[in-house]
Design brief:
Strand content of chain B: 5-15%
Number of strands of chain A: 2
Number of domains of chain A: 1
CATH topology of chain A: 3 helical TM bundles of succinate and fumarate reductases
Structural class of chain A: mainly alpha
Number of helices of chain A: 5
Strand content of chain A: under 5%
Number of domains of chain B: 2
Largest sheet of chain A: 2 strands, antiparallel
Number of helices of chain B: 9
Radius of gyration of chain B: 21 Å
CATH superfamily of the largest domain in chain B: Alpha-helical ferredoxin
Structural class of chain B: alpha+beta
Shape of chain A: flat
Distance between the termini of chain B: 65 Å
Number of strands of chain B: 7
CATH class of chain A: Mainly Alpha
CATH class of the largest domain in chain B: Mainly Alpha
Helix content of chain B: 25-40%
Oligomer: heterodimer
Strand order of the largest sheet of chain B: 2-1-5-3-4
């Protein structure tokens, strides 16, 4: 048997490292990214609650009162609070990322990132204000 | 200030080893030394068998990309003094096959880069007599950022999507495609969009954003990909509404 190591010129034996299952714990931004992906379940839950609410509304005042009573149980309240926090987390990270995708050029100059983010937040506030006004007008 | 600092370097000698190992060298600590200087010190004085790639020493050639303490870095622009008191761990870039020690094989990227047609495409070339294609400074400004890419592969090494889905065309290739799309002289945007809308193209990106963070030339590949997605989506909606207008 030859004692020479097995090596062929021009056919290097490459080493390929496998990606670990725990790659998303390697650095903080990977973890934040995976957290954003996973917590989208709560965003979907939040949207579903709204749909259920609409359905209850369609089914008349009794069904709606029942729906509201169910929302007020501590377990649902806790779940809703958690879901709301994650929806906020998603909204804020989303707004902060908008300047990456939206490049607005005015008179040949790129509008700075903070202006784009600021306009998004302003639009959010204005729209929320309009919704609040419409909802609370009759009170 | 210490007089020396420990450098822990990945060794992979395929003629004798089936897996990489680590080797630690004690190198002189100097305030003005970068990691690459320390590696060259090892090569010249301590162990001539250590293999790594480098060329310009000034952040232009893109050859000396390696992982320093877990983060992809250009070793010519990363100072020893930022890692006091050490040890400093130097590894080859992630997700590329390791040829030897710190040297990785980049064939995969080269193939992908060619696929996105990173050159100026014209439907019809102007005759020479009409002179050069002129551009205003503002027109240059729209793509200049993306043209700064030096193909150093730090963004690929930072992209977990590329690690998990090796077929993904990757950050630098998409940023360079965008560089030519934004060029006022180019007419190949539709051609490139077709290539990049394929399964392995830009929709694989889930916007982790690390590519932009590690980029030594501030190219912002993550931004390029998201802008490209916006273009692709608008193009798709247009083709639904006006099927005759987007050919």
């Amino acid at each position: 048997m030859s004692t020479e190591p097995h090596y062929t010129l021009y056919h290097p034996r490459w080493y390929r490292r496998r990606v670990s299952v725990w790659w998303w714990l390697q650095n903080r931004s990977y973890t934040a990214f995976v957290l954003r992906e996973l917590t989208s379940v709560f965003v979907a839950f939040f949207a579903l609650v709204y749909l259920w609410q609409l359905r209850a509304l369609v089914h008349g005042p009794e069904a709606y009162a029942q729906f509201l009573a169910r929302l007020k149980t501590p377990r649902v309240l806790a779940l809703d609070t958690v879901a709301f926090l994650f929806v906020l987390f998603h909204a804020i990270t989303w707004f902060n990322l908008t300047p990456k995708a939206m490049v607005v050029r005015l008179r040949g100059k790129r509008v700075p990132d903070w202006v784009i983010v600021g306009l998004n937040y302003a639009a959010w506030l204005v729209l929320s204000g309009v919704v609040a006004f419409v909802l609370l007008r009759g009170r | 200030m210490p007089s020396t600092i420990a450098l822990t370097v990945t060794r992979y000698r395929p003629e004798g080893e089936s897996e990489p190992t680590f080797q630690t060298y004690e190198v002189p600590f100097r305030k003005d030394w970068v990691i690459l200087d320390a590696l060259n010190h090892v090569k010249d004085n301590l162990d001539g068998s250590l293999s790594f790639r480098w060329s310009c020493r000034m952040g232009v050639c893109g050859s000396c990309g390696m992982k320093v303490n877990g983060t992809p870095k250009l070793t010519c622009a990363t100072f020893l003094s930022d890692y006091l008191p050490g040890p400093i761990r130097v590894e080859p870039l992630d997700y590329f096959p390791v040829v030897r020690d710190l040297v990785v094989d980049l064939t995969d990227f080269m193939r992908k880069l060619k696929k996105v047609k990173p050159w100026i495409i014209r439907n019809e070339e102007k005759p020479l007599s009409e002179g050069e294609y002129l551009q205003t400074p503002d027109q240059v400004d729209t793509y200049k950022q993306f043209s700064m890419c030096i193909n150093c592969m730090l963004c690929y090494s930072a992209c977990p999507i590329y690690g998990l889905e090796p077929s993904f065309i990757g950050p630098a290739a998409i940023a360079l495609a965008q560089r030519y799309n934004m060029d006022s002289r180019d007419e190949g945007a539709t051609e490139r969009l077709k290539i990049l809308s394929e399964h392995d193209g830009l929709w694989q990106c889930t916007f982790v954003g690390e590519c932009t963070k590690v980029c030594p030339k501030h190219v912002d590949p993550a931004g390029a990909i998201q802008q490209y997605k916006l273009t692709a989506a608008t193009h798709w909606i247009k083709s639904l509404l006006l099927p005759w207008g987007t050919r």
